[in-house]
Amino acid sequence: MHCNRWPILFFLLMASVCWAQEAGFVRGTVLDGETKEPVVFATVRILGKAKGVITNMDGSFRLPLEFREAGESIAITSMGYTKKEYGLQQLSPSDINIIYLEAGVLELSEAVVKAKGKRFRNLNAKQIVQKAIDAIPNNYPATSFSLVGYYRDYQYKDSTYLNLNEGIFEVFDQGFDQLDDSNTESLIYQWSTNTDFPQDSSARQSYNYKSLSKVIEKARLDAHGGNEFRILRIHDAIRNFNVGSYDFIGTMKTDFTKNHYFLRGADTTKDGNELYTIKFRIFFPNYRANGTIYISKFDFAIHRLEYTMYDEKKKGDDKKRNKHGHFQKPIFDITTEYNSQDGNMYLNYISFHNTFILNVPPVFRVDDYAVDFDEQCFTVEYNTRPLEELAMDLKNYDVEFKNRRVKIRTIKRLKNKIYLIPALIDEKKYEIFGEILDAVKKEKDLNELVSIKVSNVRDTLGNLVNKWTAPEYEQYREFFVQEVKPDNRAPFDGLFMDKAVPLFGEQPMDEPANGEYYWMNTPLKKSIN
Questions:
Q1: What radius of gyration do the chain's Cα atoms show?
Q2: Cα 156 vs. chain centroid, distance in angstroms?
Q3: Do residues 141 and 486 lie in contact, with contact meaning Cβ atoms separated by under 8 Å?
Q4: What are φ and ψ of residue 387, in 5° steps?
Q5: With the C-alpha atoms ordered 55, 57, 60, 64, is the resulting torsion angle positive or negative?
Q6: Rounded to an integer, what distance in angstroms lies between the CA atom of residue 276 and that of residue 78?
Q7: How far apart are CA 84 and CA 77, in angstroms?
């Protein structure tokens, strides 16, 4: 009886830990009302406070319980859905609240726009996009402002979050007429690794294009000092419209419309605004890119830019059509969304997603190939015990001397070491091993004389000898704005983030005056089933 109590006690302890992690928050999940699929990156705002969060990959979000206790309400908006409002008192403080959004797509209409008092007739898709780019200086702030938000980066494999790092940052931007990377400063208010999520030290390492230990296939990501937040901001093509950005976007101001083919899709809505949906694409022998840009019918403001680069010669592992209707494998995917506030467009969120490959050395390998002069044979030493029947199979070994095959008569094994005894008459044996010994004395490279190859041998756990593996992971960097502060300047004495140093380097931390207003929107679950 005493022993049977332990599993129950352990379960209760685990339940209390999980509850402690979520206590103090109202939790919810936003789903499509028709498909019941998660609505990813929906905006959840506190009405009248310009504060809120963005939903996670599973549609989840959390808000501090104090907003519910204060009787606040929320508005939930997402591209293509009808806005929904809830009083937080309607939501349970302890359960995960399920909220459904209904589609709000408009029919395709004639391209006639009355924008800020001007009327434009018969604009095609490319012309609409060019007008949107030309209007960036008018639609986005030219004066200083700041954004406070939740930043995170993580890997994702087998439906599980890995290496989740998260923090609260405030970005001080001098305006769209200034270069972002050189002039923008950031304060780090909170920053840590969330150890409640699985850790994978191999996936955490930096990209290395010299050793090829971690690479993005068919792409290259500049290190930018190893600072992931800086890497993310550089990939905001709208903010960096007048400087070089990623791949075929180029310099958005001059290259975007030249490099792509454009086609109008069905008009849509976001938070009551009617938007053009412009789809675009480009094809090359090795790559293709697809995307969508959403543009206001009123002032040509760009509300969202979605861009995906695909490997034209590689199909996805799941053999299903991707979101652009074909089977090619994505290399990277970037989504940037802006919202209107006080007559200007401000960043709502940016998500940069890419796949990467880890080239992992063999678990089971040959540690040493050698020549045993006393026994006049060749030896193969494994790092761990090989499977007996495979290690003793003559067909799995190939020995050459001066590029001519040496027939093996028999095999002996001593623990992890294999002795390959050649089928040679004594005279030939003395000749070969004498020449090898002479080469050793003269410090010559034995690889020019002897070649030993091993194949098809496995260890007792089933690992194939000398087999490198290349598991594929997904990498995300994301910044979700919780508050916009128009006309806000950087403090003169701010302890700003060092953009040339990784986030886990010697970075200064600051303490905001109203830090309780910002919170981590950590995913509610460690994996998505």
A1: 30
A2: 7
A3: yes
A4: -70, 125
A5: negative
A6: 15
A7: 7
**Tens of pLDDT along 5-28?**
333 333 333 333 333 345 689 999
| 282-296 b/e (C-beta count within 10 Å ≥ 16 → b) | eeeeebbbbbbbbbb
Residue 421, amino acid: I
- Distance, in Å, from the CA atom of 392 to the CA atom of 448, rounded to the nearest integer, reads 26
Please indicate whether residue 109 or residue 311 has the higher confidence score (pLDDT). 311
Q: Are strands 268-270 and 261-264 parallel, antiparallel or unpaired?
A: unpaired
Query: What is the 3 state secondary structure string of 332-393?
Result: EEEEEEEEEECCEEEEEEEEEEEEEEECECCCCCEEEEEEECCCCEEEEEECCCECHHHHCC
Answer for the pair 349, 42: CB distance below 8 angstroms, yes or no. Answer: no
**Contact criterion met (CB below 8 Å) for 363 and 332:** no
Q: How confident is the model at residue 519, as a pLDDT?
A: 87
Q: Are 371 and 436 in contact (CB under 8 A)?
A: yes
What tens digit of pLDDT does each residue of 396-437 get? 999 999 999 999 999 999 999 999 999 999 889 999 999 999
pTM, full prediction: 0.81
Q: Residue 116: pLDDT above 80?
A: no
Rounded CA separation 330/316 (Å): 8
What are the tokens at 501?
A: 């140093």
* Long-range CB contacts (within 8 A, 24+) of 277-281: 278/125, 278/128, 278/129, 279/125, 280/125, 280/129, 281/324
User: Could you give the CA distance from residue 173 to residue 141 in angstroms, rounded to a whole number?
Assistant: 9
Q: Is the pLDDT reported for residue 194 higher than 50? A: yes
Bridge-based pairing of strands 344-358 and 472-486 is antiparallel
- Sign of torsion over alpha carbons 502, 503, 505, 510: positive
Q: How far apart are CA 484 and CA 32, in angstroms?
A: 28
Average pLDDT, the chain: 88
Q: What are 267's two structure tokens?
A: 């008009």
CA-CA distances (angstroms) from residue 102 to 78, 79, 303?
A: 10, 11, 20
pLDDT of residue 357: 92
Order the strands of the 408-414 sheet from edge to edge: 366-372, 377-382, 417-422, 408-414
Report the phi/psi class of residue 501: left, alpha or beta, with left for phi > 0 and alpha for psi in -120 to 50: beta
Q: How many CB atoms lie within 10 A of CB 1?
A: 4
Give the DSSP per-residue string, 191-248: EEE-TTS---HHHHSPPBTTT-SEE-TT-----GGG-HHHHHHHT-TTTTTTSB-SGG
